[in-house]
Here is the input.
Amino acid sequence: MSLRFRRGRRFRALGLVLALVFLAAPAIVLPTASAQNGNGSSAEATPSIELVSQSMWVAEEDFFQISFRLLNAPGDSTVDINIGVPIRSRSAFLDRLAEPSTGQVLHQISRLSVPEPDANGIASLQITTTSDQEREDDEPLLLLPAEGVYPVSLVLRGSDGTRLDTVHTFLVRTPRPDANQPPLLVGTVLLVSGPPAVDQEGNVFLGLAGQSLQTLADVLDPPARPQLQATVSLDPHLIDALAISDRPEHAQLLARLQQATTGRQIASNTYVPLDSDAWIDQDLSLQIGWQIETGAAVLDEHLGSQPDRTIMVLTTSASPELLQRLQREQVELLLVPDALLNPADELVSTSAKTSFLLPAIDQPARAVAIDSSVTAHFTRASNTEAAPYLVLADLAVRWFEDPQRIRGIVLAPPLASLPDSSGLGVLLDEISASPILSPIDPATIAERLEPDTLREVRPAEENGFGEDYKAALTDGQRIARSYQNMVDPIATVGTPERQLIETLERALLLSGAYGLTETQRDAYLAVVAQTVRDTVAAIQPPSQQRITLTSRSGSIPMLIRNSLDHDVIVRLDLNSDKLDFPDGDSRLWRLSPGVNQIQVAVRAKTSGDAVLEIGVNSPTGLLALGESQLTVRTTSLSGTGVGIAAVALAILMVWWARHWWARHRSKTQPAE
Here is the structure.
């Protein structure tokens, strides 16, 4: 009995195990549609809806079209369109952005079938809009009873009506044309800036600025937007980096930028962004002009477009001394990011915030603020394709706040944070198409909105200059220009020596860039000194030797070797206590590659040995290339010695003649 009982219990346990394995087998063998999350466990793919494009400006009786993309949505999904009450103030608009799911629903269109998507998976809906609540047929109508900015929610639902996902946007019901309602003036500045793109060794690295330049070339593509109103502000050192780079993609990008910026307003800029407070503190006001001149020359040479010297974007700070310097450089209008302005001076009024005055020493400088709060939607939006419509809605509510008053705003979209140019292109195209917005250049905004407010610019957060930067920069400029004087009059464009001059100038300019450490600045300046030192070491002064002159005047041959592969101009400085130089003691000579024989005319003051000191210098004499000494022996008599000898010979001849005559008479006369 006990034996059968144990066997039965074992058989029942074995059967239970087999049954569990059998029940679990389908789950193990059959594939599933689930996806694994980061922890390795399975999770269902979440259905979602993404906004692709939409019509922004809708008239009284018009069409509203919206395109979207469904991801992982069931085939029988439907879409609801919810319209909120119109918004006419920016405070209400910002509240709606913060809580997009709240707010009163004015109108709803439910359970719209999703149209067949195109090859890119994009589906589109087009709905007729109306301002009348009466409906005469079953066609879905979008009720927009009044002018304003309407919140729009696109709700994705499953077959059972479950809400799967929601995307939020806005549309604008525009008013009828009215001469008493001027449009909002919108100036757009396409700004590309960045740290030095060329390192101390001459390597080109654009970083994020390269992507921004690509976006700029795409959005300003002449066939796509030939009449686009926008001001371009570029750091000239970025364009210079593209020009010297040997990478084909950089050459292609530079060519596209040349086409994209032709005929457009290009703001003036210093070669690199500067900490203007530091430059003024170091008494480098004139060097700021050097940076501006070089920046203008670079843009003119490589883009083929002379920048507008009357307008400039302020990047770091603006002391009254700097503003005075910029006024002397013909700058009439400054574009100032609002982050640089003293918050204590900010006024609520849009016009006061847009156009204002900056305190300069002689007279106030005109300025326009770049508003960052509007373009912040590009970095704030979860869907980058919806960002331009949020910016447009923000601009629209500003207009609805006070449509009877002329107002303006300047935007600078964050090119560095945009994945491509599509969103920026939508923004610029819709600004041009809007009946309540007017694209215009910032200078016109300053003229239309006469400034009456004085505002301060906060000082830069850091001062990267050491106490000896001015002296080091001045010394580097002296060295570079000394070499330039050696080759500039005879070097042609594109030659290695001309390229070396440009390399030295570039290193000096980059050393002053805002944000560099003291070590980085010193490294740029050290490149200048070391490069020139290594280059001029190829010029060897005459070797020490003894030369004999057999006459009072003559020519001394000197051999100077030029081991460079190009001609240079040097200055020979001659010095001796016992020699005169009829052609001058300082002369310029052109040295060809190889050994050059130079004849130097001399005149000996006395006979004997004379030491001739020879200095080989740059044409200005500021750069010493080498020194040497020659010993000159003169064997001819001096002028005084020749005179004394002649007198002595004359006396001797007279004495000899008298002596001979006396003896001759004594022989011919008889003795008494």
Q: What stands out?
A: The first strand starts at residue 35 and ends at 36. The first helix runs from residue 2 to 29.
